[in-house]
Amino acid sequence: MIDDETIAFYDTAAGDYAAKFAKSRPDAQLAAFMDLLPKGGRVLDLGCGPATASAHMRTAGFDCDPVDASDGMIKIANDLHDLGARKLTFDELDMIADYDGVWANFSLLHASRDDLPRHLNAIAIALRDQGVFSVAMKTGTDATRDRLGRMYTFVTIPELSELLTNAGFSILAVDEGMGPGLAGDVSPWVTIRARKD
């Protein structure tokens, strides 16, 4: 289920978000993901936000399909990068073997814990055989709304790893770190890269 308050925030704050997280080059997580993709591979940027990652992937020669649930984010993504970003929620993900990779960078953390298995299964179905999935989430054990009104689901690394395994993925790499969010808090995070079995 979409959390309307979270989407409403992104609709109005898309410009601030894009400015805060603008990057002139791919970060280490995106670079590692691209290294696992076939040349010219097709990638779903799931919860693309301002589509900065898609812009970097396009420059690297990949065929990107950036999608987001926020109209505000879609508009700024297309204004900034002209990538054909389009509106799509997690619940609407119904592609079958369309992608060589799926990039979900701090987007699935807005899904409820109960919905995560269903979304991960849909991602697996959307991937071609041996497709690569990169998912980044904040780590923890609860679900809460931040001071900006966004709903978050925090996961432990064993929990996320088990969810991925149950969805038919083999874990390739686990990276951990700490970083500031738009709300100003510094939180622990994990990125897991996995391959569809």
What does this structure look like?
- The protein has 197 residues and is of the alpha/beta class.
- It has one domain: Rossmann fold (3-Layer(aba) Sandwich).
- It contains six helices and nine strands; from the N terminus they run ααβαβαββαβββαββ.
- Strands 3-2-1-4-5-9-8 form a seven-stranded mixed sheet, with helices on both faces.
- The radius of gyration is 15 Å and the shape is globular.
- It starts with a helix and ends with a strand.
- The mean pLDDT is 93.
Quick overview:
With 197 residues, this protein is of the alpha/beta class. 33% of the residues lie in helices and 31% in strands. The chain has one domain (4-196): Vaccinia Virus protein VP39 (Rossmann fold, 3-Layer(aba) Sandwich).
Topology:
Layout: H1 4-20, H2 28-35, E1 42-46, H3 52-59, E2 63-68, H4 71-81, E3 86-87, E4 99-105, H5 116-126, E5 127-138, E6 143-145, E7 151-153, H6 157-166, E8 169-180, E9 186-196
Parallel strand pairs: 1-2, 1-4, 2-3, 4-5
Antiparallel strand pairs: 5-9, 6-7, 8-9
